[in-house]
Amino acid sequence: MVEESAYWLAWAQISGIGPVLLRRLQQHFGTLATAWNATKVQLGEVEGFGFQTLEKVVQQRSRLHPEQLFTKHQQENSHFWTPADADYPRLLLETPSPPPILYYRGEVELQENLGQKPMVGIVGTRQPSEYGIRWTRQISTALAKNGFTVVSGMAEGIDTESHIAAMKAGGRTIAVLGTGVDVIYPHKNRDLYKQILTAGLVVSEYPTKTPPDRTHFPRRNRIIAGLSRAILVMEAPLKSGALITATYANEFGRDVYALPGRLDDYPSQGCLKLLSQGASFILKELDELLTMLGAIPQIDTIEASTAPEQLSLPTLSPELQTVMDAFATSVPEALASDALPFDFIVQQTGMAAGSVSSALLQLELMGLISQLPGMRYQKS
After folding, report:
1. Which of 16, 25, 81, 163 has its CA 20 to 30 A from that of 280?
2. How far apart are the C-alpha atoms of 19 and 100, rounded to whole Å?
3. Mapping DSSP to helix (H, G, I), strand (E, B) and coil, where does residue 232 land?
4. Cα–Cα distance between 92 and 297 in angstroms, integer?
5. How many CB atoms lie within 10 A of CB 321?
6. Is 81 strand, coil or helix?
7. pLDDT tens readout for residues 306-348
């Protein structure tokens, strides 16, 4: 879908149009190509498109040519995905703010992108104690040996330790950068960066040659949370980017685990706060942790083993049942297919878009529905 990918890229060039507004555009118009040709009045119907934003769109859209822009961008950034591409990471796509462009370098594993291989994020302080380092190494090693891909941010401290331990154990790891995928930060991790390219993947929402910027790193934490089935916070003070990642994980419906520490340990204060707010404990018995993480259903396992008569489950929560009921409604002739667009499901259920997105992901993991290109869904 090169054409639709070109429009994701073009819309992303307009100032003031971020991932959330792009998602709303797609949900409202069905495709960003359709949105590109919409009138000012039509765009004004989309939530978040106020007067100033509309003026920017009108002024900047006339100077952009999506197909030409896409061709030029490919020459400067040879490897990237847009949400219109089949290889775009499925779990990340289900979040409220997926990056319109996701750049990558390294070895792509399609099972990860399709959500068929579990990925777990490990985050924490840049200045860990010996205790935090020891447990990060043990847990990353155990995850890698049990088939999990470890996701982190290639920062100093906990991030670095998790990447290294996973690769030493023969596993894969993914680094989410706050720079371009060709910019190594911190520079001392240049050797680690090279190793990750041969044993995993480096991804970023920023184009090549983008230097480090303090505003980029909190934003990239949503990608770590979005890619992962669960987030493990190893050590984190109260003011830590790891807590931002945990917040995103909660918003996305991911499980959050925290390593407990002593009450008077500064690096553990953030973890203790998470535990007080309902995060699960990381305990000494790692088999229990692996069992809980492994219990998260994998898409391929469910789809392969679920028989048709098992698909009508009587134990759905009210929220999931409401979304499933939307598929039993009469499909408007204008849709011309049995697949329902995301915005139509939101309209039918009367639920918030974020709640619908989370419910759709759960139903897909249960094998009850499947997603088609263009944010359309149908019963399996």
Report:
1. 163
2. 6
3. strand
4. 16
5. 14
6. strand
7. 333 333 344 567 888 888 888 876 555 444 456 788 878 888 8
Domains contained in the chain, CATH given: 2-76 (1.10.150.20), 102-294 (3.40.50.450), 299-379 (1.10.10.10)
With vertex at residue 22, the alpha carbon angle to CA 17 and CA 28, rounded to the nearest 5 degrees, is 130
The CA distance from 62 to 135, in Å, is 54
Nearest to residue 101, comparing CAs of 9, 202, 223? 9
- Taking the C-alpha atoms of residue 26 and residue 21, their distance in angstroms, rounded to an integer, is 9
d(CA 300, CA 111): 9
Nearest to 189 by CA among 222, 167, 220: 167
Q: Which two tokens stand for residue 333?
A: 């002739």
pLDDT at 373: 61
Residue pair 241/132 in contact (Cβ under 8 Å)? The answer is: no
Hey, which residues does 255 pair with through a beta bridge?
Answer: 230
Selection from 343, 348, 341 nearest residue 374 by Cα: 341
